[in-house]
Amino acid sequence: MTMNHHSNTPALEVREISKYFGSVIALSGVSMRLLPGEVMCLLGDNGAGKSTLIKTLSGVHKPDAGEYLVDGRPVSFDSPREALDHGIATVYQDLAMIPLMSVTRNFFLGSEPTVGRSIFKRFNVQRAREIVREELSKMGIDIRDPDQPVGTLSGGERQSVAIARAVYFGAKVLILDEPTSALGVKQAGVVLRYIAQARARGIAVIFITHNPHHAYPIGDKFTILKRGRTLGTFTKRELPREKMIHLMSGGDELERLEHELRGFHDQQADILADAIHEEEELY
Amino acid sequence: MSGQAIDKGKGDERLLRESFLKRWLRRPELGAVGGAVLVWFFFAVVAGNRGFLSLRGAANYLEVASELGILAVAVALLMIGGEFDLSVGSMIGATGMIIAILSVHFGWNIWAAIVVSLFFALIVGAINGILVIRTKLPSFIITLGSLFVIRGATIGLTRLITGRTQVGGIKGAVGYDSASALFTSGIQIVDPASPRGLSADFPISIFWWLLIAAVATYVLLRTRPGNWIFGIGGDEDAARNVGVPVDRMKVILFMLTAAAAWLVATTQVLATGGADTLRGEQREFYAIIAVVIGGTLLTGGYGSAIGAVFGALIVGMVQQGIVFTGIDSDWFMVFLGAMLIVAVLVNNYIRKHAAEAK
Q1: Range(s) of the domain holding residue A91
Q2: What is the per-residue pLDDT across B235-264, written as a single tens digit (0 to 9) for each?
Q3: Which run of H or of E encompasses A39?
Q4: A 113-152 near B (Cβ less than 8 A)
Q5: Is residue A110 part of a domain?
Q6: Could you tell me the CATH number of the domain that includes residue B343?
Q7: CA distance B294 to A176
Q8: Would you place residue A142 in the very low, low, confident or very high pLDDT band (cuts 50, 70, 90)?
Q9: How many domains does chain B have?
């Protein structure tokens, strides 16, 4: 699945990076590497440092310690735009698109194709429409009308358009911040298929999700964050589905809670523990 | 959406089947175009025999609409970009007075006075924009402040310099004739409806109004900065993240509204031969009303310059139409306010249906 690597140079690598906010240690010595055409799932509970890590990767924050390399070269970004210029594109769950603007206008916002010279230079709307239709159909999205406002698209389509935009503008690394968390099963499937398409084009993907059912089928590697540190990066072979689910859902804590509740010898507590157990099995 | 009922395999053909109505519904100005037709019919029926339908009647409301329209088109661009400018009314008073004082009191060539006045407008517009960006305060507050500062300074300085609050005698200034040709000439057409053979005077401001609206529409729909304006108004942070020069665009938009106020002031000063420190009062509200009637969202990101044209036309027709009906023109504001609310409700209704039809 991931054998079509163009090189062995990681598209993105961080070595021992740390980030502090005042006295709070948000990230502590986090290392990970990502090859082109690889999907890495970033897993971890709330407060584990996932969002600090992706904000550091996407140029919003600057790391306080450690190294950040893109294509094997050390980088230091002052803004998300700089990261974008290096091919690091981040698609945020909420900030992706402007609902009142058309698909085409959203797609090219800030990078509009033009025709003509000097004062006759104009936004080549026709060309833009063609590109959008073409790029989206390449990724298996059949858009009815590139002029329709993004607000009329479904959540999955919206995410997909944002991803298609990042891919079209030359993203080498795609950071997806919980793109599927607000979506239903079918819509999430659209986005997952899309991530697979991006991978097939040799793009490295960092995929943040809470849902093991979304992470496991698409992920090649799994990095688990806990309290600002990595518990390590595992390949799919090293991390069977059950273990991943256990790690993701905070299994240790749930077990401890179960024992604690058992200790009450209270019927109510047993019922509650069963419920928790059942919930765990559901995953 | 109608497209889904049609065979999926046909690809692009589904687009052709999409009705023109559907495309129209998606345009912001639809409500204003319909409103203008309704208002015209209303006055045609109520005041048709009292001169509303005559050429002179048309010249009358078009002149009012054009002065408001010049302002409204610039304000529309700014509001699509997500900001307000309440200082345009004061700016009309200030720039007009600058022209009058320089050309009459100091004896300058009127062209020089007009150019200095334009520079003043551009600088104050830029200051408005920079203050909004730097302080991150709502532009409503910043320009509400500059509304009072500009008006107050205009009255204070004019009285200091001339001892009065009105300056006349511009028609005797050096260069008046050539300036007047550019800003206040018009086309006279003999009105066949007039029993005494009077002519209807269509001022050149109508031409300026339509030209500015055409340029603004082109910029909005067919240039990169136009796309940026929509993006900035829709989501400033998202626009900035994809590299749109948000701050620069905002400053330019504030400069444009100030320049539009200057153009209106120049036209008025040359046409009436004098300036008054109170000129342009409440024009900022009229302009916002015209823009909102024209379908532009108060919150930005959506709207059109053509809508502002029709919004201004509606306001002009109502303002002058009431005179033709013989109703006391005191009632104009009642009409205007009620119309604003109805227009916003209708526009919201249309937009909702256009957006949700899936």
Answers
A1: 12-236
A2: 998 888 788 899 999 999 999 999 999 999
A3: strand A39-44
A4: 114, 121-123, 125, 133, 142, 144-145, 147-149, 151-152
A5: yes
A6: 1.10.3470
A7: 39
A8: confident
A9: 1
